[in-house]
Amino acid sequence: WDETHFGKMGSYYINRTFFFDVHPPLGKMLIGLAGYLSGYDGTFPFQKPGDRYEQHNYVGMRGVRLCRLFCAFLGSCLVPFAYLTVLELSKSLPAALLTAFILIFDTGCITLSQYILLDPILMFFLMGAVLSMVKCNSCADRPFSASWWFWLSLTGVSLAGAMGVKFVGLFVVLLVGLNTIYDLWDLLGNLSLSLVVFGKHLLARVLCLIVLPLALYMAMFAVHFAVLNRSGPGDGFFSSAFQSQLIGNNLHNVSVPE
Q: How far apart (Å, rounded) are the C-alpha atoms in residues 156 and 154?
């Protein structure tokens, strides 16, 4: 059922048809982009589960046969993400390998990665945020180095991605936030650091873990509204002034008092 739901929204992006959904737009935009790049024209109706795709090019969106494509590719990335995270935390190769093999043979992970769903996209950004956070912590002995900035910025990008797919991504924001608070508290108690250096640490985290994710999150909605400029099933959720900007709407180009 969910594949029918989100596949239809991918088609809406390809056709630039406005719709409304409870989830933020990033996951559906990426699904639509994957379909567009793989040659899908957005004409499949996605009316009910089990409908045959016939001549429609679904491979790029669903990744059933080519696991390198989109959802299946993102799902396969969870294995190296988990391996690297556990290896960094435990410094144990057997533990990291065990974690990787558990995910490789996990039926749920394999199944979720086969279909047009938000779950593999969400898990990609969730685990990407955790891996980046762990890698950034490992660079604590060389703050403000290129690698430290890279992993800190990538953590912020991953946080924006997780929030931009589903609001449940806020849980990884909480995890990174608690880790950051602990890190800053530890730095504040280090008497060998001046307040100026501590201020630089605080500013770096504000920029990379608050400002950057919020800017990217808002940019997703800017793209969302710029792409969906045609009248569709989501018009009625918005004001008359907004509907007047949608091509094909009865109020299109009508002057609406504020």
A: 5
